[in-house]
Model the fold of this input.
Amino acid sequence: MKYFIGNWKMFGVSKSANIIKKIIDYVKKDKKKSNYKVVIAPPYTLLQNFSKNFNSKFLSICAQNCHFRDNFSSNTGSISAYMIKELGVQYLILGHSDNRSEGDDEKKLSLKVNNALNNKMKVIFCIGENKKQKKLKKTNLILKKQLSKVLKFKMKSDNIIVAYEPIWSIGTGFIPKEVELKNTTIFIKKTLKKIFKSKKTPHVLYGGSVDGGNIKELRRIKEIDGFLIGGASKSYKKFIDIIKNYYRN
Ligand code: PEP
Done:
């Protein structure tokens, strides 16, 4: 099963439902649809509307973050995994570099991941090195630390998806070299196997400047279980092009 996950970040109002409708229309008619799963993460303001109207076997709705405290607490402007799950939202992105740069450290992320899993949600856990770390050849070291500080053996690995998003490739138009990305994906899977002490590891996605053009290159890397798509997911045409070109003969 491959994943195509759209992260809208701070984009979208009620009329953006049109984008979701077009994507669902495409998936419904696509002969390849049993091979993949589409997930869209709109901002909090649209979760209730979109979850009620669009959550289906053709598309799932996802939240982009939550507070590190669960249930109810005194945190102005925040929402918890429990509150998101109550809307019927199954998926939750955690550890995105946007949020790491605004204070999401490993301690908070551990709490968030645990809260999401306790609420029986599926976590899309983002990891990735920055440009300097890459230059210093510290990518594997950083990824191993990001994974092992937060993901633990006792967690339900079936409900965890890892998204490898090199920070230097997010929104820049640059993607890693094919051999590098293949090796990094293999390294992440090996690390997850060690953490969960099992042969079955979480799916590992790639994210960073994915579009309808470079997907033809990215699809050659069979170890990648899907994609986390930012910019291109705000246009139904660009998003659908990614799926189309992934499966094109
Ligand atoms: C993202 O922010 O998760 C992302 C992958 O963005 P983009 O596709 O625009 O690089």
The first helix runs from residue 17 to 29. The CA atoms of residues 5 and 39 lie 5 Å apart. The mean pLDDT is 97.
